[in-house]
Amino acid sequence: MRKLFTVLAIVLSTISMFAQAPEKMTYQVVVRNSEQKLVTNTNIGMQFSILQKTATGTAVYVERHFTKTNMNGLATVKVGEGTKVSGTFSKIDWEDGPYFIKTEIDLKGGANYTISSTSQLLSVPYALYAKKAEIYNEKDPLFSRSAAKVIKNSDIVKWNHKVDQGYYKAGDGINIGRTGIISTRSRHYVGELFGGGVVFWVDHTGQHGLIVSMGMLGMRYYWTSPPNFNKSIGITAENLWNGESNTQAITNQAGSSGMYAARRCASYKNKDYGTGIFEDWYLPSITELTTLWKNLYIVNKVLDTDKNTNTYIVPLYTYWSSTEASATDAYTFQFRTGTVQNVRKGLSAVTRAIRKF
User: Fold this and answer.
1) Which of 180, 167, 292 is nearest to 241 (CA)?
2) What is the rounded CA–CA span in Å between residue 153 and residue 159?
3) Could you say which DSSP state residue 80 is in?
4) What is the pLDDT of residues 129-148, one digit of tens each?
5) Which of 7, 161, 228, 316 is 20 to 30 A (C-alpha) from 101?
6) In contact, 261 and 333? CB cutoff 8 Å
7) Residue 43: count of CB within 10 angstroms of its CB
8) Would you say 98 and 90 are in contact if contact means Cβ atoms under 8 Å apart?
């Protein structure tokens, strides 16, 4: 049986301090095939086995699910709510561990499992064992001054809804506070294949950044439409760092009269590289192009892995920015020398799109 390729799962269980602990765990998994490609929007069959003591130990509980991955290859199920094969989930003695969870998947949506993965259940599932504390009437003098006091059942319901809808992704870190509420946060990185392209800048939180398109959109586009070669847009298109607002200003002036760099980016829909289809692309500002150039080595190393020369960012080319320099000129960036230049709007340059996340 083949192993489950690049699968990272999150097992989440929330517990109320005043109610019985739920007899289930929310489980999320990102599924990739043997070619390391995400399995998106696909019906799959899954079998979960809770193994006792070792990764090859006795299965104290086994159940099956039939679900569908989303556009990011993410599947979400609740262990404890599936079709039972053997055992009783509510009777698992979590104190008598350690326990391991074995995940088996059939990419054809049935029960002929061809890929699998086994990992140890650590602290999160043992929140189920906290149900024993229901018989203990503890008085916590610090609780009235803690953040937990303001957490209501409605907050927990909202939290579970976000998990069930895939709001949190596999690969997120897990933090557990005193209240038993679990928080997750995914950190992205430069060079990551994500959001329809390659990440080339990330902010200090790791949650937001910039993505460059997988391919060049064209080599011979004007900056704007011909009737506007000598017309100034003004301050709304002169932003040095916000290409999104610049692009909007350019298309507002030029409209749909012909295809030009800003309009090409604004109308771009990326090919699906396993990260979804996105329509919020724009022509980068001069500072955003400079940032891309600074990380060009990392980005091109990633683009080079698909063996498609059309995705490579060619350093010899001059690329349009969305930043207007004057009534007749706009800024371009020369990737070979790392220099900014003023170029006539009616001349041709290379166009490449970026987007925010």
Assistant:
1) 292
2) 10
3) T
4) 555 555 555 555 555 655 56
5) 161
6) no
7) 14
8) no
Taking residue 327's Cβ as centre, other Cβ atoms within 10 Å add up to 13
Which pLDDT score, from 0 to 100, does residue 98 have? 87
Residue 38 DSSP label: B
pLDDT for the residue 324 = 96
CB atoms within 10 A of CB 153: 10
Q: How many CB atoms lie within 10 A of CB 196?
A: 26
Q: Is the pTM of this model over 0.70?
A: no
Query: What tokens does 72 get?
Result: 């990011």
User: Where in the chain are the domains?
Assistant: 2-185, 193-356
Q: Tens digits of per-residue pLDDT, 328-344?
A: 999 999 988 889 999 99
Contact of 126 with 133, CB cutoff 8 Å = no
Residue listed under structure tokens 């698909």: 306
Tell me: the pLDDT tens digits for 28-79?
Answer: 878 887 777 888 899 999 999 999 988 888 999 999 999 998 888 888 888 8
> What is the token pair recorded at 40?
């998106």
With a CB cutoff of 8 Å and minimum separation 6, the contacts of 95 are: 129
Please compute Rg for the chain using Cα positions: 26
| DSSP notation for 49-76 | EEEESSTTSEEEEEEEEEEE--TTSEEE
Instruction: For residue 32, list its beta bridge partners.
Output: 5, 38
Nearest partner of 59 among 80, 82, 39, 88, judged by Cα:
88
Instruction: Return the structure tokens found at 182.
Output: 């679990």
Phi, psi of 94 (to 5 degrees): -65, -20
Tokens of 166: 């895939």
pLDDT digits (tens, 9 = 90+) for 151-202: 666 666 555 554 444 444 444 443 434 334 444 456 899 999 888 899 999 9
Burial class for 213, CB neighbours closer than 10 Å (0-12, 13-18, 19+): buried
Between 95 and 41, name the one with better pLDDT. 41
**If one looks up domain 2-185 in CATH, what number appears?**
2.60.40.10
Residues constituting the chain = 357
DSSP readout, 292-313? HHHTHHHHHHHHGGGT-TTTS-
